[in-house]
Amino acid sequence: MNQSLARPALILGLLSCIGPFAIDMYLPAMPVIGADLSATPQGMQSTITAYFAAFGIAQMIYGPWADQAGRKLPLYAGIAMFVAGTLLCLTAHSAAGLIAGRFVQGLGGAALGVVPRAIVRDMMTGAEATRMMAAIMLVFSVSPMLAPLAGSALLMITGWRGIFGALLLASVLSLAMLAFAQPETLAPENRRPFNLGSLLGGCYALLLDRSFLLWTFIGAFGFGSFFIFLASASYVYQQGFGLSSTGFSLAFAANAMAFIGATQLASRASLRFGVLPMLKWASVGFAAAACVTLALAAAGLANLWVCMAGIGLGNGCLGLIVPSTMVLALDDQGEKAGLASSLGGTLQMLTGGLMVVVLGPWLGADPLPMVAGIAFAALVTLALTLMMARDGRGQAARKPLRSSARAASSTSSPPPEPSDSTRRQPRAPERP
Fold first, then answer.
1. 259, 315 in Cβ contact below 8 A?
2. Per-residue pLDDT at 181
3. d(Cα 41, Cα 160) in Å, to the nearest integer?
4. Cα four-point dihedral sign 395, 336, 15, 92
């Protein structure tokens, strides 16, 4: 990357990576935090649900706001809210205080996932924009590897509050960089007024669109399986299987990288086999891996290696399913594509959060409830995929994905772009 792109890439990369790190850094510390705050595993799992619920809802706000007020004001508000939430987490003395802090963090973190992509689209197009987005995508790809390891190291050196101290330092640094090094990129004459009636009308039309809903919820239940894994893996791997925080971080990275690696194959597989056949076989593979793992867990045979292998194979299949369904959900939306992207992301976040809430009372050190929840999500994903395959509305999926950049998206932490100004650019991969 040349010198002219290095500075904005650094700024936008830092802004964009705060959200994924806020999710992954504290996972190794969840059992320790729960013990310190006298919180149950279910209480600690609620901290994840609170973050994702807030993130999903808030992304519907930041896109239209950034189109109306420019890019920097929503970012200032988002970073300020993220700082406030991090301070609440840093000083929390109860599970309720930590849940509140994580909710506020999620409200702020949504801006850091949404607006930087709009800034890229404002600043450049073509090959330069592609290179810039590639640099940002790399951050998301390495986050599942680096963030848990960084959190584990801080846990051993500073205790769990040091993890939130590091997030606070990173957010303050990003605020300073935004103020002094990143110019406003949306000129006043290019800003568009916000129309609540149009927004609500567009959402209503999308919620009546059978094809949009089916594709969205195929991805949502796949995404929800990883929510279940996030909420329970630290307890299963550390308390159930006896791993250290560092060992958990390595196991988590291995499972997450199976997803990330598969996303890189989604476009090639769709070109060779077609999207619908790829999705059907990936859904069958996901359900088979999850059900076999569930059967072994029910028989008392689900040790560490069985769980890692079963979940890793399932995540590999998810890497083909989730990004493809996100593309197909937008395929026929035309001018509503930006709104459809935001609404789809919100529905996925809320679906995953609801699955964790429902399963929460049974999640803990025993791997069986975790694997059962993942198997349920896999079977629903398979059923919806087969329903779409029989539906005449699935015709678009019989052709290859139209853009390899779009097909390489994944479910992670950052949400899809919510506004027209961001709709045409390559999408940063979301972590599962």
1. yes
2. 79
3. 16
4. negative
Cβ neighbours of residue 187 under 8 Å, at least 6 residues apart?
none
Q: Would you state the structure tokens that stand for residue 240, as one six-digit string?
A: 């159930």
Q: How many CB atoms lie within 10 A of CB 424?
A: 12
Exposed, middle or buried: residue 80 (CB in 10 Å: 0-12, 13-18, 19+)? middle
CA distance 236 to 238: 6
Q: Say how far apart CA 12 and CA 19 lie, in whole Å.
A: 12
Residue 376 has pLDDT above 90, yes or no: yes
Handedness of CA 388, 256, 142, 33 (dihedral sign): positive
The percent of the chain in helix, strand and coil, each rounded to the nearest 5, is 80, 0, 20
| pTM (2 d.p.) | 0.79
pLDDT tens string 53-112: 999 889 888 878 888 888 899 999 999 999 999 999 999 999 999 999 999 999 999 888
* Cβ proximity of 202 and 346 under 8 Å: no
User: Pick from 247, 219, 240: which is nearest to 370 by CA?
Assistant: 240
| Separation in Å, CA 190 to CA 387, 389, 422 | 43, 42, 14
Q: How far, rounded to the nearest angstrom, does the alpha carbon of residue 22 sit from its chain's CA centroid?
A: 11
| Buried-exposed string 32-68: b where 16+ CB fall within 10 A, e elsewhere | bbbeebebebbbbbbbbbbbbbbbbbbbbbbbbbbbb
Does residue 391 contact residue 319 with C-beta atoms inside 8 Å? no
> Across all residues in the chain, what is the average pLDDT?
81
Domains with residue ranges and CATH for the chain:
3-183+208-422 (1.20.1250.20)
| CA dihedral for 262, 266, 268, 273, sign (positive or negative) | positive
Residue 92 CA neighbour count, 13 Å, CB half: 31
Looking at residue 286, its pLDDT comes to 95
Is a pLDDT exceeding 50 seen at residue 408?
no
End-to-end CA distance of the chain: 28
CA angle 182, 183, 188 (to 5 degrees): 145
Q: What is the mean pLDDT of residues 243-266?
A: 84
